[in-house]
Design a protein that fits this description.
This protein has three helices and eight strands. The chain is an alpha/beta fold. The strands form two sheets. The chain has a four-stranded mixed sheet. It is globular and about 45 Å long. It starts with a strand and ends with a strand. 24% of the residues are buried. The model has no long low-confidence stretch (mean pLDDT 96).
Length: 128
């Protein structure tokens, strides 16, 4: 078994791709012509986006949509960088919602938290 990708269900796939490019410097791997699915280049594991409508068609019993009006879901995605403050500021300037300013953790890692346009929790951290 190999961990291949994480899919974030979002309102607007194209908007999310543009946001992640601007906020985190990621590059689009591909976007389907339907605009319902896309993947970003993130190394051996891809970060993907799927439209809420696509999720609804796959998950016939429904799912909890991500939303800025609700508390973050009990899951996060994390990006590591050598300059946490600069990456955090770049994300906020691109439209991310600041949640917790970067601070040093007892184990030596620097960590800050933002939410994306759909309310998804994102950790911006130094390497451990």
């Amino acid at each position: 078994m190999e961990f291949s990708y994480t899919i974030l269900y979002v309102k607007d796939v194209t908007q999310s791709v543009a946001f992640y490019e601007k906020a985190f410097g990621l590059h689009q791997h591909f976007i389907h012509e339907s605009g319902q699915y896309a993947q970003m280049e993130t190394g051996s594991t891809k970060l993907a986006f799927a439209a809420n409508e696509l999720a609804s068609s796959n998950l016939i019993n429904g799912f909890q949509e991500n939303s800025l009006s609700a508390q973050p879901a009990g899951i996060e995605i994390a990006f590591t960088t050598d300059d946490v403050e600069a990456a955090f500021n770049r994300a906020v300037e691109a439209g991310a919602i600041s949640l917790v300013l970067p601070k040093q953790k007892p184990w030596g890692q620097k960590v800050g938290y933002v939410r994306d346009l759909d309310g998804i929790l994102i950790e911006i951290a130094s390497q451990i």
